Amino acid sequence: MSGARFITFEGLDGAGKSTQLATLAQALHARGIVVEVTREPGGTPLAESIRELVLRQDMGLEAETLLIFAARAEHLARRILPALAAGRWVLCDRFTDATYAYQCGGRGLAEEAIAVLEQWVHPQLQPDATFLFDVAPAIAAARRGAVRAADRFESEQLAFFERVRAMYLRRAAAQPQRFIVLDAAAPAAEVGAQMLRACEPWLR
Ligand SMILES: Nc1ncnc2c1ncn2[C@@H]1O[C@H](COP(=O)(O)OP(=O)(O)OP(=O)(O)O)[C@@H](O)[C@H]1O
Ligand SMILES: [Mg+2]
């Protein structure tokens, strides 16, 4: 199967998403596949500016969610959809599953609110595959602890991340055809090998 694929990477802050995204990008590149690597919130100049606001500025849950979808609309229109149309694979660090997990699971927004925005902003598009790097919040916190100062999400308590994780797992269970859940507590090389095995059917 050679068509362009839209692959998203999900999991708690520190789960290993960026590490594994880089691994997959390299593996695809080595096979001559042209890859677009991007992230959410972000991926365009405006969306990156919105990211800074969302990660740093105090704001209400509604504003936070709407800003994330504003960034997503820009990202889709200017980056993701053109890349897919041009036949490039898109590897995206977080997408709408993260909004369900963090804003609904973590912060308690009604899922219907996200569903309405999802239906508005990307009614047709879903990722072709979503890797969920599943790990206990304490492990994720330990991994990111050493790296840098916490943003508005990373400074939440473990209970918040338990709810985020539970929402991710619920979504993965509801859409098993799209999600590939990996045990992200394993060493990075092992997680990466499992991820690459899961990709093999797309590369034949
Ligand atoms: N499987 C693993 N085992 C141990 N350490 C790991 C593993 N995967 C990643 N790490 C390390 O944990 C830290 C966080 O990893 P990474 O940045 O990939 O996570 P992330 O999910 O992208 O986090 P964030 O959401 O904060 O961007 C990094 O220092 C990385 O080297
Ligand atoms: Mg990352």
Kindly describe this structure.
The chain has 204 residues and is α/β, with parallel strands linked by helices. It has one domain: Rossmann fold, CATH 3.40.50. It has helices spanning 17-30, 45-56, 61-85, 96-106, 111-121, 137-145, 158-174, 188-203; strands at residues 6-11, 35-39, 89-93, 129-134, 179-183. Strands 2-3-1-4-5 form a 5-stranded parallel sheet, sandwiched between helices. The longest helix is centred in the middle third of the chain and has 25 residues, at 61-85. Bound molecules: adenosine-5'-triphosphate and magnesium ion (MG).
Summarize the structure.
The protein is an alpha/beta fold.
Question: Any chance you could write out the topology, listing elements then pairs?
Answer:
Layout: E1 6-11, H1 17-30, E2 35-39, H2 45-56, H3 61-85, E3 89-93, H4 96-106, H5 111-121, E4 129-134, H6 137-145, H7 158-174, E5 179-183, H8 188-203
Parallel strand pairs: 1-3, 1-4, 2-3, 4-5
Magnesium ion (MG) binds at residues 17-18, 93.
Distance between the termini: 6 Å
Any idea what the CATH architecture is? 3-Layer(aba) Sandwich
Main sheet characteristics: 5 strands, parallel
Query: What is the chain-wise order of helices and strands?
Result: EHEHHEHHEHHEH
- Rg over alpha carbons: 16 Å
**How many helix segments?**
8
Strand content: 5-15%
Question: Considering the protein shown, what is the CATH homologous superfamily?
Answer: P-loop containing nucleotide triphosphate hydrolases
Heterogens: adenosine-5'-triphosphate, magnesium ion
At CATH level 3, the topology is Rossmann fold
In which order are the strands of the major sheet placed? Answer: 2-3-1-4-5
Mean pLDDT, rounded to whole units?
Answer: 95
- Count the beta strands: 5
**Fraction in helix:** 55-70%
Low-confidence stretches: none
Structural class: alpha/beta
